[in-house]
Amino acid sequence: MRPTIKQNKIGDYRIYFLGMIILILSFVLTDNFFGSSNIKSIFDTQACLIIAALGFTLVMITGELDLSVGSVLTFGMITFTYHANHYGLFIALILTCFCGALIGSINGFLVAKLKVDSFITTLASMIIVEKLNMIITNAETYTLSNEKYETTMETLSAPLLGWQGFFLSNLVGLVIVLVLLTTFFLNATRPGRNLYLIGANEKTAWYSGISSDFYKMSAFTLSGMMAALGGAVYVLTNSSVNFDEGSGSLMTIIAAVIVGGTSMQGGKGSVFQSFIAIFSLAALIKLLNLLEVKPEMITITNGVVLGSVILYDAYLTFYKKRIKGQRHELLEELNDPQHIENILREPEELEEGKDMQKNNSLMIVCVTAIACTAIVAMMVLSINKDKQITINIPTHAAYAPAPTQVAEQATVAAASTDPYALTSIDGQPLLPRTILAKDVPSPFNNYKTLPETDPNRWYDYEYGMHNITPRNDLPKSPSDGPQGKKIAILKIMDHPYFTAGEIGAKKAADAYGIELKIFSAQGKHSLQAQQVAQVITEKIDLVIIQPVNAESSVKLLKSLHKAKIPVIVANQRTTPEGLKYALCWSGPDDWGNARKLSHIFVNEMGNKGEYAIIRHNEGNTCFESRTWGFVTEIAKLSPNMKCVAKEATKLDAEKTRLAVAGWLKQYPNLKGIISSDDGDTITGIKQACEAAGKTGLIIVASGHSKVGMDNITSGFVNAINFQSAETDGALPVKLAADWFSGKKIEFINYLPKAIIKKNNVKNFYPAQW
Amino acid sequence: MTDNHLEDKRAIEIPRWKGLLHFLGIYAVIIVLTPIALIVDNDFLTFKNINNMLTGMQHLLIVVLGASFITYSGKMADLSIPFTMVAAAFASVFFLPYGLLAAVVAAIITGIIVGGINGLAIGHLNLNPIIWTFSMNYVLEGVLRLLFEGRQIYPQGPSLENFNAIANYRVFGFIPPVILLAIVLGCGLHYLMKHSRFGKDIKLTGSSEEVAKASGVNVPLLILKVFVISSLCTALAGLSSASSLATANYSLGNAKDFDAVTAIVLGGIALQGGKGFLSGAIGGLVLITMIQTMMSAIPGVNNYWQAIVKGVLFITVVAANAHFSRKAGKV
After folding, report:
1. Residue B257: HSE in the Cβ half-sphere, 13 Å Cα cutoff
2. pLDDT of residue B86
3. Which residues contact B145 (CB under 8 A, 6 or more apart)?
4. Who among B138, B156, B298 is closest to A396 (CB)?
5. Checking DSSP bridges between strand A142-143 and strand A240-241, what pairing results, if any?
6. How far is A191 from chain B (nearest CA, A)?
7. Which residue in B65, B74, B97, B99 sits closest to B237, CA to CA?
8. β-bridge mates for residue A490, sequence order
9. Within chain A, which residues score under 70 in pLDDT?
10. A513-551: per-residue pLDDT in tens?
11. What are the start-end ranges of the H helices in A607-759?
12. Fewer CB within a 10 Å sphere, N or C end of chain A?
């Protein structure tokens, strides 16, 4: 037996096998996987990752790790967008490559010259570049200016060389050319092959006269440059970018490159295989999406795939070490049973042979067992989605039964009951009977020159959605009622608030007889784009979308409109231009809530004093409303009150505690704090106040989670505002049902408002989330 | 006075002050920084402020105590710290209705399980620790979100008061109980690291795994134990975090892995392994907390700059470390 050679063959070309398996599985398990939009969307979203993976493979071949690719990718996106808007495409491209190369060269210098471990260097640079991104963009979304580049972008997205229906766009064609060039460089040129040598055995490379320092530095520089270039490519297909757009890409790139056969010790690898690997992994995830596997399983899959591949790699290394120096012919003789009988005199050698065999097969069995268990578990857990493995969180007597029980009750009292009789967990009505209209003042122009405390400065944010006239070519209602319709909800992320929203949506859907399909974009626009593409290929009657990114969502809304699928936008904002393509918008009235809360706040503060604001996350819809809504309303009600500080603390308890502790020192006359969220931030404020011994601060917060309500009960927080998560999820479903029945629906639908103080907090228990 | 040639023939003459510097390690930097801190913030050394700082670093302190072992043994870092903390938080809050002891035991068991998996994979199968723990982080996240349906859970039950007291009670008015636990744990772990056979074996493994294997140290078992210790400490930190936040949510552990590694590296425990003291890691953490507190007392500096300063500090120390060890010939 010659196990080595056979194993090597499989080991080297495993990615092709894997790719084939995935393609075959997708063909068998779904019917329209090869529909052009599916494959096209995969290529479009992964083009940037392919380029970054090229650079990453180069670095891995030399035996080092580059963890900063994700951050440099985002950095490239931001740089490219900014400079393309101001200076032109070509200059932007050159500048982006230069900046990426600069970062890469710093990494390379540290690794090659100062001999710092590459993991540490690139981990540090990843964090530094990430923070830099946040500071540079000031947390705004950067958009590529449409007028200049619309034609360029369209040419790039057009099918390759005009072959209609083909799944490669021009841009992807360019990317593939780059991949082929790099493969050629690595395999056919001397510098390329030197890289392999350096990775395989650095000492030998050094003695052969190859300056490994220079090569390593170049590999890192190239990696940085390609990551930045990938960012530029992303912007060309997506046209707008957030500061954390590339956050999940590190995992994908690492997984793909390692699965693709590049060894972590270096000396082995191929960029072409990395390219195939990225495509295969993306296809696998797409396949799982199509099979309606839950999003958490996809996260697990990522980890499991990576884990099993490095397990396999380790096994291979172990195996190679074991058989190092062995001679196959002798081994063969030992395994021959005839031969064994003839050498009965030397039992030790026999046992050694058997031991080695046993060890090998043990490893094989272990790896196979783990892989099989993982796959079986995935399938079981994914199929079991109806009979969920729910954990009945044991509840205290004061608390209502577990949510699943309440949902069942709502289902039992299903199609025959009045949907308005449904309640959320806390006993509040799930659906409002009437939608409160809002007084909209006339539009205001030239607002940029106004001071920040003037409410008209924020007119666009506050009333921008109201002044839109929807298009007249939106889909018409079928007027045959909501029974049996399929609605897809594209959630923005997995947060307990949105999970509660899901519960509310399910209750309403069950009451109307609607079938729901829920996706989570995990906070990434690229995922949401893929989900939109998937929804278009299926027979969905209506889409409820929570846009991840306001500017980028316009493209998604346009494509849904083209596919004649009606859309309702929920909870998050989209641009006024995008909202034209929607039937209506539903969600919390952040500005109205902020203003209402400000009245209470000013009251409690006695119309005077200094206050500070803990802001929400940048890029979130309520970032502006929960800062400037407060500031402008308080300035109107009580000009004596001064906002001395505002800081965004990522809604993290520790950061909030630090910020507030600093404020308590810098502003000893601080009288009140307004918080944009009532969860961990309140805990942070409380800890800071307790540490400093400061009591009697007036605290109000937005939102009503359990932590906030408990603090109202204990008296630390004066007031919070009611924002029913379940209604946030259920209201769009009701609007959809009304639309299906042909009823007229309002364009802007705000959730009911209420202020929760100590005297009425009991009505809102148990907390929805 | 005996004419002892050996006494005079010291290979290298180390000036007194360098020896002191070497002895103090990171604490020298802290001592230098304290007057600057006093200038920036007048009541830096008051009980209030120390309470402030101790509150901030209590959870991370326990993590650092455990994670130092991993770095000391040469396995660089454990990137699964964030979701190990979250897993322990969820486990303990879930079992709190059955009593405080049940909650603590649940957290400990979670830590042992996760540490065991990590240790087996990295010790026996020799996988790359960074990539394995990186994947483990993702897998833990997915599993937790699946098990708990994406919700966050709140502590309830008859032992609620005691649970909250873990993070919120103050001994003598300014010492959190977690710090006391950390002191006890720290003493125990320091003894383990420096004076026990186990600790010396770890040092050997960190310096050179080949030599350790050849000397008869059972390296896979050793790595398993190291990871179990570390995950155990992380789990306890998760428990105290859950107590502090009065909830178990998925963002408990954000960035804790990088913060822990920064503290350890700043404190003199080299990433290659085999060097440094546990007290150094604690000193590193104190330094980071001091810098964070100082920076937050300056108006206008928001928390992004704090993160950048941490990152720059990290890379400077590591680069300097690597440079000087290269110069000294011990690459």
Report:
1. 23
2. 95
3. A296, A299, A494, B250
4. B156
5. antiparallel
6. 27
7. B65
8. A519, A545
9. 1-12, 31-38, 139-168, 239, 244, 326, 339-340, 342-417, 445-447
10. 888 888 888 777 777 887 887 788 777 889 999 988 787
11. 622-637, 653-666, 680-692, 706-714, 725-740
12. N
> What percent of chain B stands above pLDDT 70?
91
Angle between helices A295-322 and B129-147 (to 10 degrees): 150
Distance, CA of B135 to CA of A99 (rounded, Å): 30
pLDDT at A351: 43
Is residue B121 pLDDT above 90, yes or no? no
- Residues B194-230 have pLDDT tens digits of 899 999 999 999 988 889 989 998 999 999 999 999 9
CA A552 to chain centre: 14
The minimal CB distance from A393 to the residues B94, B312, B326 is found for B94
**Region of residue A572 (phi > 0: left; psi between -120 and 50: alpha; otherwise: beta):** beta
Gap between the Cα atoms of A449 and A184, Å rounded: 56
ipTM of this complex prediction, to 2 decimal places: 0.83
CB contact under 8 A, B149 and A307: no
SS (HEC) of A536-593: HHCCCCEEEECCCCCCCHHHHHHHHHHCCCCEEEECCCCCHHHHCCCCEEEECCHHHH
- Which B positions 119-148 lie with beta carbon below 8 A of chain A? 121, 125-128, 130-132, 134-139, 141-143, 145-148
CB contact under 8 A, B303 and A649: yes
Q: Does A315 touch chain B (CB under 8 A)?
A: yes
Tell me how far CA of residue A550 lies from CA of A317, B190, B256, in angstroms: 48, 53, 31
Residue-level pLDDT at A1: 39
Q: What is the pLDDT of residues A176-222, one digit of tens each?
A: 888 888 888 888 888 888 888 888 888 888 898 888 889 999 999 99
Tell me whether residues B151 and A650 touch, CB distance under 8 A. no
Write out the H or E segment, with its range, that includes residue A460.
helix A459-463
A350/chain B closest Cα distance in angstroms = 25
Spell out which residues of chain A touch residue B307, defining contact as CB-CB under 8 Å.
127, 131
Q: Residues, chain A, total?
A: 769
Q: Say if B150 is an interface residue toward chain A (CB within 8 Å).
A: yes
> A520 near A493, Cβ under 8 Å?
yes
Residue numbers in A near B156 (CB within 8 A): 394-396, 399
What angle is formed at CA A413 by the lines to CA A410 and CA A419, rounded to 5 degrees?
70
- Chain B, residues 8-27, CB within 8 A of chain A, namely none
d(CA B1, CA A46): 79
Q: What are phi and psi of A229, to 5 degrees?
A: -60, -40
B157 part of contact set with chain A, CB < 8 Å = yes
CB-CB under 8 Å, B244 with A300:
no
Note whether A717 contacts B: Cβ–Cβ < 8 A. no
Query: Residue A159 has what pLDDT?
Result: 63
Cβ contacts (< 8 Å) between A120 and chain B: which residues?
76, 261, 265, 271, 314-315, 318
* Structural contact between residues B65 and B185, judged by C-beta atoms closer than 8 angstroms: yes
Residue of A nearest to B314 (CA): A124
Å between B41 CA and nearest CA of chain A? 8
Locate B216 and state its tokens: 């008869």
CA distance A300 to chain B (A): 4
Alpha carbon A73 to its chain's center = 15
The size of the A-B interface in CB pairs under 8 A is 219
Estimate the share of chain A in helix, then strand, then coil, as percent rounded to the nearest 5. Answer: 60, 10, 30
Structure-model confidence comparison of residues B116 and A703, the more confident one: B116
Residue B95: closest CA among B248, B199, B245: B248
Q: Are B161 and B168 in contact (CB under 8 A)?
A: no
Residue A125 near chain B (CB below 8 Å): yes
